[in-house]
Write a structure and sequence with these properties.
This protein is α+β, with helices and mostly antiparallel strands. The protein contains four helices and five strands, in the order βααβββαβα. The chain has one domain: Aminopeptidase (3-Layer(aba) Sandwich). The longest helix is centred in the last third of the chain and has 15 residues, at 95-109.
């Protein structure tokens, strides 16, 4: 049975394992070989007062993640998703769409007015989010500065 549950810091090891298995492979190929950095990143996302993270479970097995924050913005309260994923082997089964639908229902019940997320145009997730009703903010740009 597929269920959605809020996640907590106590589940960090299970979260890290799923996250690593998904994002260390195609199409992302992120280098999460530094386990301390991975631990800190996941802790940053799920260990704060405004954290809001969900797990999608098939019986007791974690198969999906939505890791983010609740942010209070002038346009309303938003759920900012930093990481969203479904176990690689389970992608294409409609689980991601179902997961987003469950999150949206939860958010509406909590008076959250919108969901905000970022992704890359070159990965399949971009089209997945568009298919699920997300649209680009035309005047928005992400900027990055790397220090060496």
């Amino acid at each position: 049975m597929i269920t959605m549950k809020e996640l907590s810091i106590e589940q960090i090891e299970e979260i890290k394992l799923l996250f690593f298995n998904i994002f260390s492979n195609k199409p992302w190929n992120d280098d999460w070989s530094d386990s301390a950095q991975l631990h800190q990143y996941i802790e940053d996302l799920i260990g704060n007062n405004n954290s809001l993270s969900f797990g999608l479970f098939d019986d007791d097995k974690l198969i999906g993640l939505s890791l983010g924050y609740v942010m209070h913005w002038c346009a309303g309260t938003e759920y900012y998703i930093f990481e969203f994923c479904i176990e690689t082997e389970r992608q294409g089964e409609g689980l991601g769409t179902d997961f987003l639908s469950r999150i949206e229902k939860y958010a509406k019940n909590k008076k959250i007015t919108h969901i905000f997320l970022q992704t890359e145009r070159t990965v399949p997730a971009y089209h997945f989010y568009q298919k699920n009703g997300f649209s680009e903010i035309k005047d928005h740009v992400s900027l990055f500065k790397f220090f060496r």
